[in-house]
Amino acid sequence: MTGQEKPRGGVNSPEILIIEHSAMVGNIIVSTARQLGLHTLRLVSNARSAHHFMEHQAFVGLIAALDDEEEALALIQKLRTGKFRSPENMPVAITTGFCGTDLALRLKALGPRRILIKPFKIRDLVTTIEALTDQP
Fold first, then answer.
1. Which residues touch 30 (CB under 8 Å, ≥6 apart)?
2. Is residue 10 a part of any domain in this protein?
3. Are 90 and 79 contacting, i.e. CB atoms less than 8 angstroms apart?
4. How many whole angstroms separate alpha carbon 60 and alpha carbon 9?
5. CA within 20 to 30 Å of 83's CA: 49, 57, 73, 102, which one?
6. Is the peptide bond before 119 cis (omega within 30 degrees of 0)?
């Protein structure tokens, strides 16, 4: 590693929190990120668990599946109003099976960097993880 590269995936490296209800999908995402040397991902299965982690730890990004849409959107809203340890402008990405006009307008107000429509390609997810850790 040269002096210009950022350390990634180490024991004390900053983490991205990922909310994914499917254990299989979540584990694939986490193991792929690990194999590619991307940031460490902390996987939780629902917004309630994410809320607990965000109260006690700062993260560098959030990838939230909208399987429980209202809970996930409420969590992001709390983030944006500074209720957690992470900065309120922390980058957020959304994964969802469908994004109609109503949801798109609700999401726009919360300022996600990316919206991935399921099923998405692993390449798109890798790009999203990289985008969450880049400076805006």
1. 18, 41, 43
2. no
3. yes
4. 13
5. 102
6. yes
Residue bearing tokens 């957020």: 92
CB 93 within 8 A of CB 132: yes
**The pLDDT of residue 3:** 37
Q: How many domains does the chain have?
A: 1
Nearest to 54 by CA among 23, 81, 26: 81
Range of the domain at 81: 15-133
pLDDT digits (tens, 9 = 90+) for 14-69: 899 999 999 999 999 999 999 999 989 999 999 999 999 999 999 999 999 999 99
Q: How far, in Å, CA of 62 to CA of 74, rounded?
A: 14
One-letter amino acid for residue 65 of the chain: A
Alpha carbon distance 51, 78 (integer Å): 9
Beta bridge partners of 17: 42, 62
